[in-house]
Design brief:
Order of helices and strands: HHHHHEHHHEEEHHHHHHHHH
Number of helices: 17
Helix content: 40-55%
Oligomer: single chain
Distance between the termini: 51 Å
Number of strands: 4
Radius of gyration: 22 Å
Largest sheet: 4 strands, mixed
Structural class: mainly alpha
Amino acid sequence: MDDDVTTDVARLFSPQRLRLAREACGLTQTELSRRLGKSPSPAAVSQFENGDAKPSAVTVGRLAQALSFPVEFFATTASPSSRSDGEFDRQDGYGHFRSLRSVTAKQRRGALAVTQLVRDLAAALSRYVRLPDPDVPRLSPDTDGLAIGEEYATIVRQAWSVPPGPISDVIQLAERHGIITARCQIATQAVSAYSVPFPEYPVMMLHKQGIKRDRDRFSVAHEIGHLVMHKSDDVPAPKEVEAQANRFASAFLMPAGQIRDELPSKTDWVHLLTLKQRWQVSLGALLRRANDIGVMSNQTYAQAMRTISTRGWRIDEPGDLGTPESPRMLAFAIETARVDTASLASETGWPQGLIDEVVAASVDSRPTLYI
């Protein structure tokens, strides 16, 4: 290890970057200290991360080795995640999670660390290519009711000039309006998506494994709803906020005025499967939409959902929609900029392996057929 490099990094040490590397590795401060042989102590690691003390060059080298991160990662650079922007101390709650109840604080922090990697990639790529300008309306709700999700979904479809009918590719729509979208391995299947409203570009992360196209599309629309309506807080989003995002997603994908006449008032599975193919949403989402807008009674809806549970359709319902949609922006920006992940690793400080993993997961893995 180059002593001059570690000395320079120690002078420019970024407390935020140490915390990010530790959380990306899924370690607590105590676990990191233990990995280092209990020196520095957990208290010293805490001081380094809070900016109350700076590690020596030797300690910086040991931290980098223990975390398997390049030593250069721990310096303050042009990358947004290395700078103190007044928001980093709110990292525990800085972000929206779809299906949050089963995720631990450690899992949440590890997931949020990946959004910082994507944030840094976007910042680096924006120096080579012009990424789509962020165009996410900020419409903070002034009510706790669900109707606001319905109203704001209509506003966003209009603002984004979405044509009537089903949205053909909701991920591409989000990326076109400046939401940096990527896939990664999320520590728990209970979380299908999450998003962070960074000041430069909002970032949305999607699970890369075990996903269904209909659920994935709803998750993307749900996260768009969060970015439009909600601010990140220091505590996990309450049920009311999640319910608003769910209503937004439902209305965004299935506008009431456009789907009302197609929805059945009685449980007609054949017709519902046809609608599933047309609107690219799950049977459960269609039933819920029919109930929400008054086409289907509460009793009929409840019985239909019991049938779905009895038949095991909550896990694997009929009418598979095929391969989930894929993010395109990162891979296309890398190709257009004519840079490789090794160069991006050098520029951002992040390990090339982590960058490769995110980039590889964020493209359509199907082979292209040329005719």
